[in-house]
C-alpha cells in the first residue's frame, strides 16, 4: 500500500470530524507565546468534548499571555492504525502539531478502563512508555482527573500527577514551564513544591508502597474561579452534547460508596448571580439547544429555583431547554423542574431495601419514593430511569429482589397518580466497586461468578414486570475496574502488557475483551485478586500518602456505622467532621 497523507486518510475512516479541528470558538493559535501545551483525553473525541474539566483547563491556558494550548483525543482504532502504518505521528487537532514537539502534555484520566489508552497514545506519538526512559528531548508529561485518587497504577508513565482542583494549579505549572523551559529536572523540582503536585520519580517506594506526603490543590472561591463561557462547539455530536453550568463542588450527602462525594470536599458553591451570568453567556455564545446544570446533587443547590427562573426568559427566547441531571429523591420538587425539560425522570435509589440504603447512607426512605414519584407523575412525567447497584457491602438476595419490588411499586404509583398504566421504566444496575477515599475502601468486591448470579436473579425478577428495560455491567469489567481502583505501581507493567496484547478502549463493551486481560495477567505473574479482596483497617494503602483532607478515622467511623446499618447526617446543615474544612471553609446551608 502506498503511504497516504493525513488528508487522504480522513476519507477512509469513520467520523473524520473527530480529527479535522476548526470548530466554532477555537481560540487563536497564532498568538506569540513561549510554551506549547497539549491537553490530551485518552478516549474518543465525543467523550472528551463532553468533559468540563478539560474545557476549564484548556480555556485557562489559552487566556494566559505566554501559553497556547491545543487538544488531542485518542484516535479510534481505524484512524490510529492508518496513521501508524503511514508513519504519521499522533498530532494535535488545532494545528496538526506532533505531540512530541510540545513543551508539556496533560492527560485527563477519568476512569480506570481507559488506562490502556495511555500507552496507545504514547506509542502513536513516539514516546517511551515510562517517564524514567524519557530525557529532556521529550515533553513533560502530566496527568490529572478523578483517577488521581489512586494514581499508582499509571504513575510511572508520568513526570507529574496533579491532584485536586486544577484551576490555580495549572497556572502555577505553566509559569514554571515558562521559567524553566527545556529543563525537565528543574521543572519537576519546582513543581513538587506546589500543593497538588505528585512527582512519582521523586518519591520513595518501599515494598510497593509510596512514602511521603502530597496535599491536594483546592480552589477557595468558585465565584472568582475561571469558567469557560466560550466553549468549543463540537464538530461531531458528543455524548453530552450541551454546555453545562457547574453549580457547586462537593456533595452534602455522604453516600458511603461514592468516591466523588469525598474527594471533592469541602463544599463550595457559586452564587445565584454567577450561575445566571454563566448560563446566559453559554446560551448566547454557543447556539445550543440545551443547557445542562452540573453537580453531584443539583437539587441541593439552595438557589436553583431562583437561578432557573431568571434564566428561563432568555432560554425561552432562544428556544433552549434547561436540563437537570439525576436528582436525589429527597431533593426533588415540582418547583425545581418547573423550568426544566421533562423528557425523562432520573433517580438513583441505588439499593432495593431500606436496610441496605441505610448501610450505604443513602438517606432516602420509602416515603420519599412514594411522595416524589407521585408528585412527578402528576406533573407530567411519563418515563423514569432508575439506577441501582448490586454487590454492595452486606447485600443479600432479599436486597437484590428488593430492586424489582421497588420498580414494581413505582409503576403502581404511576397508575395511582395518573389513573393509567404504560409507564416506561429503564433500570440500570452497576456493580459495586470499592474505591479509595471512601468508607468502603477496605471491603471486598464480590467475585465475578457471584456478580453473574445476582444479575441473573434480578434479571429474572424484572422480566415479570411489563414495560421495564434492564441494562447491566459486564462482570469482568467491574472486576478489572476493582483491580485498578486499589492497585499499586506494579500494575503499570500489566497495563502495557495488555495494550501490547491488543487491549484498547476497554470501557467500550464492543471493544472490551477480557481474554486479553486474563492472558496478560498470567504473563505478568500477578496475583490481582488481592486488590479486590478485603483489606484490614490497619493496612497501609497505596494511596495513603495523598492528603485529600478526609481523615482515615472519619472513614473508619462511617465504615463501622455501615456494618450496623446505621445512617449518619451529611454536612448540609452542619459539619460532619470529615477533616476537609482544613482546606477551605465548607459552605453549610441554614435550615
Mind explaining what this structure looks like?
The chain has 591 residues and is of the alpha/beta class. It has a domain at 6-215: Rossmann fold, CATH 3.40.50.280. The chain is 35% helix and 13% strand. It is built from 21 helices and 19 strands. The protein has helices at 6-10, 17-20, 45-48, 52-63, 77-85, 117-125, 152-155, 167-179, 184-191, 259-263, 272-286, 304-317, 334-337, 354-359, 366-378, 397-418, 448-462, 475-485, 491-500, 514-524, 552-563; strands at residues 35-41, 67-73, 104-108, 140-144, 160-162, 197-198, 205-206, 209-210, 214-215, 244-246, 248-249, 268-269, 290-294, 321-323, 345-350, 383-390, 424-431, 468-472, 546-547. Strands 2-1-3-4-5-6 form a six-stranded mixed β-sheet. It has a four-stranded parallel β-sheet with strand order 15-16-17-18. Strand 3 (104-108), helix 6 and strand 4 (140-144) form a beta-alpha-beta unit. The longest helix has 22 residues, at 397-418.
Amino acid at each position: 500500500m502506498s503511504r497516504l497523507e493525513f488528508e487522504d486518510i480522513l476519507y477512509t475512516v469513520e467520523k473524520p470530524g473527530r480529527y479535522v479541528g476548526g470548530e466554532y470558538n477555537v481560540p487563536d493559535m497564532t498568538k506569540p507565546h513561549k510554551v506549547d501545551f497539549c491537553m490530551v483525553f485518552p478516549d474518543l473525541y465525543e467523550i472528551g468534548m463532553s468533559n468540563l474539566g478539560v474545557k476549564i483547563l484548556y480555556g485557562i491556558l489559552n487566556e494566559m499571555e505566554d501559553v497556547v494550548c491545543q487538544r488531542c483525543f485518542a484516535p479510534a482504532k481505524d484512524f490510529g492504525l492508518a496513521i501508524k502504518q503511514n508513519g504519521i505521528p499522533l498530532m494535535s487537532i488545532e494545528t496538526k502539531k506532533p505531540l512530541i514537539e510540545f513543551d508539556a502534555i496533560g492527560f485527563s484520566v477519568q476512569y480506570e478502563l481507559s488506562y490502556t489508552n495511555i500507552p496507545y497514545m504514547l506509542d502513536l506519538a513516539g514516546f517511551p512508555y515510562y517517564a524514567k526512559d524519557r530525557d529532556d528531548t521529550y515533553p513533560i508529561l502530566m496527568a490529572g482527573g478523578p483517577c488521581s485518587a489512586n494514581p499508582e497504577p499509571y504513575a510511572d508513565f508520568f513526570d507529574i500527577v496533579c491532584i485536586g482542583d486544577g484551576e490555580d494549579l495549572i497556572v502555577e505549572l505553566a509559569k514554571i514551564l515558562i521559567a524553566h523551559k527545556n529543563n525537565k529536572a528543574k521543572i519537576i523540582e519546582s513543581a513538587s513544591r506546589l500543593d497538588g503536585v505528585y512527582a512519582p520519580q521523586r518519591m520513595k517506594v518501599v515494598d510497593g508502597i509510596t512514602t511521603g506526603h502530597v496535599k491536594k490543590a483546592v480552589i477557595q472561591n468558585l465565584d472568582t474561579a475561571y469558567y469557560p463561557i466560550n466553549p468549543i462547539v463540537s464538530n461531531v455530536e458528543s455524548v453530552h452534547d450541551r454546555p453545562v453550568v457547574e453549580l457547586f463542588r462537593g456533595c452534602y450527602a455522604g453516600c458511603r460508596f461514592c468516591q466523588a462525594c469525598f474527594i471533592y470536599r469541602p463544599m463550595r458553591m457559586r452564587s445565584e448571580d454567577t450561575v445566571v451570568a454563566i448560563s446566559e453567556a453559554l446560551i448566547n455564545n454557543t447556539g445550543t439547544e440545551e443547557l445542562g446544570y452540573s453537580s453531584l446533587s443539583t437539587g441541593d443547590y439552595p438557589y436553583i429555583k431562583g437561578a432557573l427562573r431568571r434564566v428561563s426568559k432568555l432560554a425561552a427566547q432562544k428556544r433552549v431547554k434547561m436540563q437537570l441531571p439525576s436528582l436525589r429523591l429527597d431533593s426533588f420538587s415540582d418547583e425545581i423542574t418547573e423550568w426544566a425539560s421533562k423528557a425523562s425522570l432520573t433517580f438513583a435509589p441505588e439499593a432495593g431495601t431500606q436496610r441496605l440504603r441505610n448501610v450505604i447512607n443513602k438517606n432516602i426512605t420509602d416515603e420519599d419514593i412514594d411522595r416524589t414519584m407521585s408528585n412527578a407523575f402528576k406533573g407530567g412525567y411519563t418515563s423514569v430511569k432508575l439506577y441501582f447497584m448490586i454487590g454492595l457491602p452486606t447485600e443479600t438476595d432479599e436486597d437484590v429482589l428488593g430492586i424489582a419490588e421497588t420498580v414494581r411499586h413505582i409503576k403502581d404509583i404511576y397508575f395511582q397518580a395518573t389513573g393509567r398504566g404504560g409507564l416506561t421504566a429503564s433500570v440500570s444496575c452497576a456493580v459495586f466497586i470499592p474505591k479509595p477515599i471512601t468508607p468502603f475502601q477496605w471491603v471486598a468486591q464480590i467475585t465475578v461468578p457471584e456478580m453473574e448470579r445476582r444479575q441473573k436473579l434480578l434479571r429474572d425478577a424484572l422480566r415479570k414486570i411489563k414495560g421495564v428495560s434492564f441494562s447491566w455491567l459486564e462482570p469482568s469489567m467491574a472486576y478489572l475496574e476493582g483491580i485498578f481502583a486499589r492497585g499499586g505501581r506494579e500494575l503499570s507493567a500489566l497495563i502495557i502488557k495488555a495494550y501490547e496484547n491488543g487491549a484498547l478502549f476497554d470501557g467500550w463493551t464492543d471493544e472490551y475483551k477480557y481474554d486479553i486481560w486474563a492472558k496478560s495477567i498470567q504473563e505478568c505473574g500477578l496475583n490481582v485478586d488481592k486488590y479486590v479482596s478485603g483489606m484490614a483497617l490497619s493496612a497501609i494503602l497505596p494511596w495513603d500518602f495523598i492528603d485529600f483532607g478526609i481523615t482515615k478515622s472519619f472513614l473508619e467511623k462511617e465504615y463501622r456505622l455501615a456494618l450496623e446499618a446505621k445512617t449518619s447526617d451529611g454536612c448540609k446543615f452542619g459539619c460532619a467532621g470529615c477533616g476537609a474544612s482544613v482546606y477551605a471553609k465548607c459552605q453549610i446551608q441554614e435550615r
